[in-house]
Amino acid sequence: MDENMDVKSTEAVTEEKSVVREIFEWVMCIVIAVAVAMFLKTFIMTVAMVDGNSMLDTLHDKERLIAWKLGYEPDNNDIIIFQPRESTPQSRKYFVKRVIATENQTVEIKYDENAVYVDGEKIEEPYIYEEMLDVSFGSTDYWVVPEGHVFVMGDNRNNSRDSRSDSVGFVDHDSIEGKVVFRFWPLNKIGTVK
Questions:
Q1: Domain total in the chain
Q2: pLDDT bucket at 190, cuts 50 / 70 / 90
Q3: How far is CA 14 from CA 18, 19, 22, 44, 69, in A?
Q4: Which residue in 54, 69, 160, 163 is the catalytic one?
């Protein structure tokens, strides 16, 4: 009888150790997964959701995007995710816009021609949603992009708060979260973004 009790208690202890080991392994897997996700989000890429219609017809409200940040340097025509000036650590806010010009370039908007000029050259913009209305956002239609900044605009020019507006202005490189490279939602539109 005593031998059976010893066998049962040994089995119980072994089973208890097995359960504890399994719980520990699950906890470790979760900790590692969270650490990897945080590393990816901090240094490699950002996941974001489009909020609004300023990038029609290229991007639509509620679409989900992946932006690449590792080693990214802004270039003309890139679609980027950035934090506008009004964003604070308490209310993190992100904008999605297209880079029209980079540092030291000039931008001129000629509403009567429905055209944007960069360094005196009219740029081709097949992605524009509709003809631009002559809407005054600030005191000028001509800008020189300062060092370490970019000039951005939405593809839906008549419904976009962008670098034309004093509330957004030039976008500092440090506020750029990355270049939009992939749309993963909705599933019928999954793929690269240009």
A1: 1
A2: very high
A3: 6, 9, 12, 43, 48
A4: 54
**CB 131, CB 114: distance < 8 Å:** yes
- CATH code, 71: 2.10.109.10
The 10s digit of each residue's pLDDT in 83-114 is 887 765 656 788 999 999 999 999 999 988 99
Q: Which of 69, 97, 163, 179 is catalytic?
A: 97
54 in catalytic set: yes
56 is in which domain, residue-wise?
Answer: 50-192
The reported pTM is 0.79
